[in-house]
Amino acid sequence: MTDQFDLTEDQRAIQEMARKFTADAITPNAAEWDEKHIFPRETVKAAAELGFGAIYVSEQSGGIGLGRLESALIMEAMAFGCPATSAFISIHNMAAWMIDRFGSQVVKDKYLPRLVTADWLASYCLTEPSSGSDAAALKTTAKRDGDFYIVNGSKQFISGAGENELYVTMVRTGVDGPKGISCLAIEKDMPGVSFGANERKLGWHAQPTRQVMFDNVRVPVENLVGGEGEGFRIAMMGLDGGRLNIGACSLGGAQRCLNEAIQYTRDRKQFGTAIAEFQNTQFTLADMATELEAARALLYLAAAKVTANAPDKTKFAAMAKRFATDTGSSVVDRALQLHGGYGYLMDYPIERFWRDLRVHSILEGTNQVMRMIVGRELTRQ
C-alpha cells in the first residue's frame, strides 16, 4: 500500500550517491567556505563528474536526463552539507536545461558540452534593480543590428556573477510586458559585459552574488534561446524547477539542523537531566519532524507533476516552494533555540543554516508571489 508513496530503487541509489558525495566533499568543508567566503568551484566540478551539472539535460546532449524528483533528492542531499553550494548547482542546472530545452542545435553544440562538465558555469539573469517580483517589467534591451543583438542594461542579485562563464539572460526585444521578452546566452568575455562588487550578504557566503552590466554588448543572433518573444515563458518554466530545488535545499538544511538538535538535546543536561527528556523538548522536536515530513511530501508530489508536465504543475511548484522554505526556516530557528546560546555561535553549524535558508523565502519568486500564483489559480473561472 505504501509503494505509491515510496522512492524507487533507482531514486534511492541516486539519493545515496548524493549523500555520500556530500559527506565526503561538502560537509567537512562548508564551515570554512562560509567563514572565508570561498567559492568551491572544484567541488562543483566534482559534482558534475557524477552528472549533477546536467541533471535534467537530455542524454542526447550529454546530460543524465533525470526528472525533477530525482533533482530534488540530489539538491536536498547536498544542502544537508551546504545549502549555498547546493542552490548554486541548482541554478547552473536550470540555465543548462533552458539551453537544452529551448536552444537551437547551434547553441546547444556551442555551450552544453562545457556546461555538462562544469568547465563552464552558467547563471540565470532575470531580476533587475527596478524589477524583482514584477519580472515582466524588465528594462534590459536587445536591439537587432544585422547578425547581432546590441544589449544594454543590468541584472541584479545574480548568483555566480563574475565567476561564471555564461549568462542566460532575459532581455527586451519588443513591446512592453511579457510578450516583448526574449532570452539570450551571453558570454562573460564578450566586450561590454562587466560586474559589480560582490554583495555583502547575510548568508550564502560560499557563492558570489553581483550585478551584471551590459554596455553595448554585441551578442550573435544565433545565441537566441527559443524564439523572439518567448523569453518570459522560458523564464517561468525554468522557475518551476528552480522553485522545487530551492524548496529541496530548505528541506536538506532543515533536516541537518533537526539531526543536530536531536543529538545536542541528548547530550546537554540541565537540572541533572538530558534536555531531550523534557516534554517541551520532545514536543518541539516532534513538531519539527512532522512539519518537515509534510513539506517533503508536498515537494515530492510537485516535482512529479512538473516532470509529468501536469496542468497544475505551476500551482503545485509554488505551493511546495512556499511551504518548504517557510517550514525549513522555522525548523532551523527552533533548532537554534534548542541549542540555546551555543546555537548562536559559529562553532556550531546551526547559525550558518539559519542565515543560508533565510533567503530561500525571497529568491525564485518571493513567498508572497507564491501565494499570488496559488490564489490566482484557485479563483480563476
TrEMBL record:
Segments traversing the membrane: none
GO biological-process terms attached to the record: branched-chain amino acid catabolic process
GO terms for MF: acyl-CoA dehydrogenase activity; flavin adenine dinucleotide binding
Cofactors that this protein relies on: FAD
Keyword Flavoprotein found: yes
Location of the Acyl-CoA oxidase/dehydrogenase middle domain: 124-217
Acyl-CoA dehydrogenase/oxidase N-terminal domain segment(s): 8-117
Positions of the Acyl-CoA dehydrogenase/oxidase C-terminal domain: 229-378
Gene3D superfamilies, sorted: Acyl-CoA dehydrogenase/oxidase, N-terminal domain, Butyryl-CoA Dehydrogenase, subunit A, domain 2, Butyryl-CoA Dehydrogenase, subunit A, domain 3
InterPro entries: Acyl-CoA_DH_CS, Acyl-CoA_Oxase/DH_mid-dom, Acyl-CoA_Oxase/DH_mid-dom_sf, AcylCo_DH-like_C, AcylCo_DH/oxidase_C, AcylCoA_DH/ox_N, AcylCoA_DH/ox_N_sf, AcylCoA_DH/oxidase_NM_dom_sf
Superkingdom as given in the UniProt entry: Bacteria
Entry keyword annotation includes RNA-binding: no
Pfam family for this entry, one: Acyl-CoA_dh_N
Pathway: Amino-acid degradation; L-valine degradation
Keywords on record: Branched-chain amino acid catabolism, FAD, Flavoprotein, Oxidoreductase
Family: Belongs to the acyl-CoA dehydrogenase family.
Record protein name field: Acyl-CoA dehydrogenase
